[in-house]
């Protein structure tokens, strides 16, 4: 199949071949590879210069693909890549080739008319985003792919294939640093952000948890104003880089694998804190700890937890682990087995940020959960927008029907609190009720909030 854009005038680089040959084609997906990608993108830019056209380029990367390989096996991962390649190949309006640059990263590009470039680019990016989001059926299992997309263009972002791909990669890393599963378009500001990320990566490699990391605790109350528990929140104070928000460094720690070591420190620190505060009148509370998917799949996680509980003389019933909806990309027996083991020990399990990802009702029914936490993005508009209010009210009812308790995150006004209470929400967390605080500020008066 020839390139479909007429400006290529018969260029013969196929979009895909069934029998990979030489070094031009990827053996796994049948797509042209890196060498062909750079050659054809350079050709497109050269033709665009001559004809007064633009070129839009996009890098598509499957988020946390390493986790898919580690938990489901490389054969499963290979099939997922083939199916994603098929999806990208079938995109109707991206008339130029689709390439597999490396690993789980694909490149697409297309020539644009300069007078309609902005509108056309918006349409193409939206089509691309919608295409990669749908459910995959891989080897008899469901997979909800999370993909980050980085976009750059000629002539705005460079005039060579190398520059266009490099800037698309910068945008891609910006999308991943922001949490992944989104689109980022290259800007000059991205360079400063990427440089900061590199500084954080270097600092993270030499981090000493007990010296630079600390824990703050945010209270969670029930509808009667009684303290139900505390969520442990990680903080990083660096001598040169200052206070680094969790949103910046948690994903970096997951990428490097350091989140497992950091998570063990958090667990030990929380258990020791529980023993210290139970003599201060805080005897019936549950401490929530955020758990990374990498911790769940790390060898010996359950055994490590049992050891920490024994050494600190802490009861498992005093702990609750919060997992995110990203765990839904891994329905492996290993993950389910770990969560079942936690429940058997008496540890509670909560699904955090419910509603913003890909949690299906099937998974909610099958996973051993106790609590669902409604994301703050839903709560902030319930007093202003009828549609948001209707969604939250319905979600609370649904969660109760499934047999779970509901925590509303991000409660910041009395009006929000009253609405949520009237809908039967079980527990509340937010700045209205209490900001994250150091252990020294935890005391008996917290047991009763002025609701």
Automatic annotation (TrEMBL):
Keywords: Coiled coil. Signal peptide: none annotated. Residues 53-188 form the GGDEF domain. Residues 193-450 form the EAL domain. SMART domains: EAL (SM00052), GGDEF (SM00267). The keyword Coiled coil applies. Gene3D superfamilies: 3.30.70.270, EAL domain. It comes from the Bacteria. Residues 111-138 form a coiled coil. GO terms for molecular function: cyclic-guanylate-specific phosphodiesterase activity. InterPro entries: Cyclic-di-GMP_PDE-like (IPR050706), EAL_dom (IPR001633), EAL_sf (IPR035919), GGDEF_dom (IPR000160), Nucleotide_cyclase (IPR029787), Rev_trsase/Diguanyl_cyclase (IPR043128). PANTHER family: CYCLIC DI-GMP PHOSPHODIESTERASE PDED-RELATED (PTHR33121:SF79), CYCLIC DI-GMP PHOSPHODIESTERASE PDEF (PTHR33121). NCBIfam families: GGDEF. This is Diguanylate cyclase (GGDEF)-like protein.
């Amino acid at each position: 199949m020839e390139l479909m854009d007429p400006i290529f005038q018969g260029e013969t680089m196929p979009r895909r071949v069934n029998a990979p040959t030489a070094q031009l084609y990827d053996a796994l997906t049948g797509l042209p590879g890196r060498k062909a990608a750079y050659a054809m993108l350079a050709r497109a830019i050269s033709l665009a210069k001559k004809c007064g056209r633009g070129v839009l380029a996009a890098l598509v990367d499957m988020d946390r693909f390493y986790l898919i390989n580690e938990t489901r096996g490389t054969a499963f991962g290979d099939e997922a890549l083939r199916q994603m390649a098929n999806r990208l190949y079938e995109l109707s309006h991206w008339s130029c080739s689709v390439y597999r640059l490396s690993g789980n990263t694909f490149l697409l590009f297309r020539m644009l008319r300069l007078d309609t470039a902005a509108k056309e680019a918006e349409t193409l990016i939206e089509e691309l985003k919608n295409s990669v989001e749908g459910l995959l059926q891989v080897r008899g299992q469901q997979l909800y792919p999370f993909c980050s997309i980085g976009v750059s263009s000629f002539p705005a972002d460079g005039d060579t294939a190398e520059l266009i791909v490099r800037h698309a990669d910068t945008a891609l890393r910006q999308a991943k640093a922001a949490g992944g599963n989104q689109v980022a378009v290259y800007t000059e500001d991205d360079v400063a952000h990427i440089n900061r990320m590199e500084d954080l990566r270097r600092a993270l490699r030499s981090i000493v948890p007990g010296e630079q990391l600390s824990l703050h605790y945010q209270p969670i109350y029930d509808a009667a104003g009684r303290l139900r528990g505390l969520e442990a929140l990680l903080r990083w104070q660096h001598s040169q880089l200052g206070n680094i928000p969790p949103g910046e460094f948690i994903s970096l720690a997951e990428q490097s694998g350091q989140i497992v070591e950091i998570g063990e420190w958090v667990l030990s620190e929380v258990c020791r804190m529980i023993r210290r505060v139970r003599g201060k009148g805080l005897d019936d509370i549950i401490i929530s700890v955020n758990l990374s998917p990498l911790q769940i799949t790390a060898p010996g996680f359950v055994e490590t937890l049992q050891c920490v509980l024994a050494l600190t003389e802490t009861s498992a019933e005093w702990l609750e682990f919060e997992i995110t909806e990203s765990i839904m990309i891994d329905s492996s027996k290993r993950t389910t087995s770990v969560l079942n083991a936690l429940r058997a020990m008496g540890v509670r399990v909560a699904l955090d940020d419910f509603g913003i990802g890909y949690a299906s009702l099937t998974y909610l029914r099958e996973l051993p959960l106790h609590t669902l936490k409604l994301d703050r993005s839903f709560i902030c508009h319930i007093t202003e927008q009828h549609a948001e209010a209707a969604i939250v009210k319905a979600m609370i009812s649904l969660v109760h029907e499934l047999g779970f308790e509901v925590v509303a995150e991000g409660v910041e006004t009395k009006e929000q609190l009253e609405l949520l209470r009237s809908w039967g929400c079980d527990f509340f967390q937010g700045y209205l009720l209490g900001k994250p605080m150091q252990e020294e500020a935890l005391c008996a008066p917290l047991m009763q909030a002025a609701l």
